[in-house]
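Deliverable D2.4 — example input (structure tokens):
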């Protein structure tokens, strides 16, 4: 009990420092009240990509969360729930012995920054639905979590489950059951589109900005994993991560995050959820174990506080010193 209290206290302290350093950012709130008020009415063209993620608005509509203030509270609670579920799963898979190490591995990913920098996006529901999928064993729960995952973010859900299938071929039965939920979700979207009417989906926005996507591939490639890239390289060096599966998964994440989407780091963090789980499981199962000295642990923990995002226009820095400075535009980097 004492150890659990210390671990929880350490997480709270780290979270406080992380928030003090990076702050939070709310997005899409100019249109979310309208979306929550009527999820089945077409949004303005510039915001119609949100129709690919109707789950938050549907929940908000059912619960009567339609004003800007209540919507902000709603999304903050979703972020807290996602963090809580993530920490529970980290402790569940790592047991008490590996909990601090596994927390560090997650802290080195861009996921914590993404969750607090895009409040208003369906990302917390993607995390919650995926964790639900991971821990579910009953077919109805597996299919149900896949269905909710699709409603949270259609394109990410399909790719995320594909990456999960690549990394965990032994879970083919579970993926097969999840495909039922995916089909149900696609049927729902067909009906949903019929009600809402023809809307501009995410692919149209990507096509519109394709020239921008091709201008900064190196910037995007370097920062889709942030410090987690060091983890991957370190585990490869120690012989823990050496398989064609992980290379295939990274290739999918890389291509989609660098060449297909506008918010590179954000989408990479979501698509990498199965990769994070794969790494945690591999570390947990490593015969020789995987450990860091206290000095190494503390250095990496401090390093994890320094996060940068990549978007189409370049690099976003969100700290107390510079809140979302677009470094690419500022420095006029030629790549």
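Example output (designed residues):
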């Amino acid at each position: 009990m004492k150890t659990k209290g210390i671990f929880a206290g350490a997480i709270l302290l780290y979270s406080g420092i992380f928030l003090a350093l990076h702050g939070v950012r709310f997005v899409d709130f100019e249109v979310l009240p309208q979306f929550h008020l009527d999820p089945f009415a077409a949004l303005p063209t510039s915001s119609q990509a949100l129709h690919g993620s109707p789950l938050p608005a549907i929940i908000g509509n059912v619960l009567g969360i339609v004003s800007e203030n209540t919507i902000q509270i709603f999304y903050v609670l979703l972020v807290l729930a996602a963090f809580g579920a993530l920490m529970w799963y980290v402790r569940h898979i790592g047991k008490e012995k590996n909990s601090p190490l596994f927390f560090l591995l997650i802290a080195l990913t861009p996921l914590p920054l993404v969750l607090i920098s895009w409040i208003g996006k369906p990302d917390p529901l993607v995390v919650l639905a995926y964790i639900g999928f991971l821990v579910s064993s009953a077919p109805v729960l597996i299919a149900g979590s896949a269905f909710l995952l699709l409603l949270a973010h259609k394109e990410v859900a399909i790719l995320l489950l594909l990456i999960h299938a690549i990394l965990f071929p032994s879970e083919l039965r579970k993926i097969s059951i999840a495909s039922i939920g995916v089909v149900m979700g696609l049927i729902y979207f067909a009906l949903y589109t019929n009600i809402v009417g023809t809307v501009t989906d995410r692919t149209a926005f990507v096509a519109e900005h394709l020239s921008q996507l091709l201008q900064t591939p190196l910037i995007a490639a370097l920062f889709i994993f942030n410090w987690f890239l060091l983890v991957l390289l370190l585990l490869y060096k120690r012989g823990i991560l050496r398989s064609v599966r992980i290379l295939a998964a990274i290739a999918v994440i890389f291509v989609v995050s660098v060449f297909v989407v506008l918010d590179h780091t954000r989408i990479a963090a979501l698509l990498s959820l199965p990769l994070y789980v794969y790494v945690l499981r591999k570390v947990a199962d490593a015969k020789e174990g995987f450990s860091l000295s206290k000095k190494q642990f503390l250095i990496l923990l401090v390093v994890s506080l320094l996060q940068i995002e990549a978007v189409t226009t370049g690099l976003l820095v969100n700290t107390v010193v510079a809140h979302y400075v677009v470094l690419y535009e500022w420095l006029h980097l030629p790549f």
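The chain has 18 helices and three strands.
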